[in-house]
UniProtKB/TrEMBL annotation:
It comes from Vitreoscilla filiformis. It is found in: Membrane. Belongs to the GtrA family. Residues 2-108 form the GtrA/DPMS transmembrane domain. This is Polysaccharide synthesis protein GtrA. GO terms for cellular component: plasma membrane.
């Protein structure tokens, strides 16, 4: 979340990027950090055998979150009149929960042993 929102703020305010491309880049970077933290710290068990299999599935699920995040960010900013960082808060709430639940169900469960 820090990489995502913090990076968005820095790219928009300091590098003068438009908020939408900055949001896509920062969401992607945040997802990379989330994958690493999820596999080494948050979840003790996972259902994938090789890290790149897990990363691929993690990324595909993340695309759902990216669509939700970007759609809410744009809608709240352009239609709702909220500042982009307030919109980011709404977007984060919408995408984080869905991504967490989908990733937990698909990737971070105990793998059934084949006897």
């Amino acid at each position: 979340m820090l990489v995502d929102a913090g990076g968005l703020f820095l790219l928009v305010e300091k590098a003068h990027w438009h908020y939408l491309p900055a949001a896509v880049l920062c969401f992607t970077l945040g997802s990379l950090v989330a994958f690493v933290l999820s596999t080494v710290w948050v979840f003790e068990e996972h259902s994938f055998r090789r890290w790149h299999d897990g990363f691929l599935a993690f990324t595909l699920i993340g695309l759902v979150g990216l669509v939700i995040n970007t759609s809410l960010l744009w809608s709240c900013t352009e239609w709702g009149g909220l500042p982009y960082m307030a919109s980011k808060g709404v977007a984060a709430l919408g995408s984080f929960g869905i991504n967490f639940i989908l990733r937990k169900m698909a990737l971070f469960t105990t793998r059934a042993s084949s006897a």
